[in-house]
């Protein structure tokens, strides 16, 4: 098999360099996995040209929040009354499947991400099974080891210091002790890595934070998690994390369904990024995040799918189309940015991914579509009016 040339041009009918820049008859010059030039027109120099067709080359999608470890649970969890009840079913089903079945699901999930145009992921792992398959794949992104309860792990082993693509996550303010959350955040801050946490997701979370009572309190007691010393009650989950000094520009808050104006103002003041997962939210909570208010607040809002346990697919095209249908006042540029540039910023990877510009990694996808105008290109992308298989072109 002939060795792939180190330097090459990639051509398509359109190139979306970023949400504001769409180039007709676009050309991308790549050298050793990095973009050297993006232009319209003919090639310069002798390097070979890979003509992908009349469709569009886009930055590979960025799924800022997913749980590949739960991929094998697709379609097997029942619809339940209350989030806490659904979590109980999830824990039981996950434990019954066993490591090999979970690994098979992880690999299938990775294939699905790549086959639907995703090249970068914020992967949240509780058990740790997804680490090796994730790093063996062509996916870029961050692998977060998630922590729950009160147990303070050995700090010398809690983070892979030699792998900048690893980081830490606290599960949520109502499931992870304040001491452990502070330890995790301090470690990620010291190593300049993003910190992820589910925040303000359910009514039951809010009930626990405000009163120490409810179904979540019962679940924590059953799992022998002592919350008697936690500094509760608090006005809201966001207020609670603010008091713990966990909110800053390196924090990625996931979901944000149960939040008010004060909460959004706190997040904006601390420059926190927010990842929303609308399809999962709709299924589990019958509710969508207040994206119009999030957008107006000026927060960096990115997009994730959550897991296949709560979502029909890991396709970012499906997620964007869902958003476009339910939030028609959001522009295609805004929605596309949530799935690309904003996700890169939230994961601390804005200098590497999310745009097709000189200096960035060539993390790209080719999408089959026909369009006469730039506006039509972006509209078709965010509403998933595409044909054929999406091809990821990541070069690691």
Shape: globular
Q: What value does the average pLDDT take?
A: 93
Secondary-structure element order, as H and E?
A: EEEEEEHHEHEEHEHHHEHEHHEHHHEHE
Number of helices: 14
Q: How much is the radius of gyration in Å?
A: 21 Å
Oligomer: single chain
Strand-pairing-aware structural class? alpha/beta
> What is the makeup of the main sheet?
8 strands, parallel
Strand order of the largest sheet: 6-7-8-9-10-11-12-13
Give the distance, in angstroms, between the N- and C-terminal Cα atoms: 20 Å
Low-confidence stretches: none
Q: Got a strand count?
A: 15
Helix content: 25-40%
Strand content: 15-25%
Name its key features.
eight-stranded parallel β-sheet; seven-stranded mixed β-sheet; alpha/beta; 396 residues
Characterise this structure.
The structure is a single chain. With 396 residues, the protein is of the alpha/beta class. The chain has helices at residues 83-97, 99-115, 131-136, 178-190, 203-211, 215-222, 237-243, 261-269, 278-285, 291-297, 316-326, 332-338, 341-346, 374-382, and strands spanning 7-18, 21-31, 34-40, 49-51, 56-59, 61-66, 118-125, 140-147, 166-170, 195-199, 251-255, 273-276, 300-303, 364-368, 387-392. Strand 11 (251-255), helix 8 (261-269) and strand 12 form a beta-alpha-beta unit. It is globular and about 70 Å long.
Short description:
With 396 residues, the protein is an alpha/beta fold. It is 33% helix and 23% strand.
């Amino acid at each position: 098999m002939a060795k792939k040339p180190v330097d090459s041009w990639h051509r398509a009918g359109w190139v979306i360099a970023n949400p504001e820049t769409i180039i007709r008859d676009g050309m991308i010059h790549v050298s050793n996995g990095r973009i050297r030039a993006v232009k319209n027109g003919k090639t310069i120099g002798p390097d070979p040209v890979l003509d992908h067709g009349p469709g569009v080359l886009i930055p590979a999608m960025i799924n800022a929040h997913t749980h590949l470890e739960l991929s094998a649970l697709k379609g097997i969890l029942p619809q339940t009354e209350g989030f806490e009840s659904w979590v109980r079913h999830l824990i039981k089903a996950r434990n019954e499947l066993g490591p090999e079945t979970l690994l098979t699901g992880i690999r299938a999930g990775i294939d699905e991400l790549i086959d639907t145009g995703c090249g970068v992921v914020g992967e949240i792992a509780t058990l740790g099974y997804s680490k090796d398959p994730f790093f063996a794949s062509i996916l870029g992104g961050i692998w977060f080891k998630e922590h729950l309860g009160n147990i303070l792990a050995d700090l010398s082993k809690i983070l892979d210091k030699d792998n900048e693509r690893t980081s830490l996550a606290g599960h949520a303010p109502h499931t992870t002790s304040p001491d452990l959350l502070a330890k995790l955040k301090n470690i990620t801050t010291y190593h300049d890595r993003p910190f992820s946490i589910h925040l303000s997701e359910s009514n039951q979370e809010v009930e626990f934070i405000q009163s120490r009572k409810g179904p979540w309190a019962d679940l924590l007691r059953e799992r022998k998690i002592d919350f008697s010393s936690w500094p509760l009650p608090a006005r809201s989950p966001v207020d609670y994390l603010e008091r713990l000094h966990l909110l800053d520009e390196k924090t990625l808050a996931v979901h944000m369904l149960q939040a008010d104006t004060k909460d959004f103002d706190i997040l904006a003041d601390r420059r926190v990024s927010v990842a929303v997962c609308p399809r999962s939210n709709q299924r589990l909570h019958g509710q969508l995040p207040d994206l119009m208010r999030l957008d107006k607040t000026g927060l960096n809002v990115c997009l994730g799918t959550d897991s296949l346990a709560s979502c029909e697919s890991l396709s970012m095209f499906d997620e964007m189309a869902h958003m476009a249908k339910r939030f028609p006042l959001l522009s295609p540029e805004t929605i596309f940015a949530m799935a690309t540039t904003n996700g890169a910023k939230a994961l601390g990877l804005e200098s590497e991914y999310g745009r097709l510009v000189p200096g960035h990694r060539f993390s790209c996808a080719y999408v089959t579509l026909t369009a006469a105008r730039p506006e039509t290109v972006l509209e078709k992308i965010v509403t998933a009016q595409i044909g054929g298989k999406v091809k990821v072109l990541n070069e690691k």
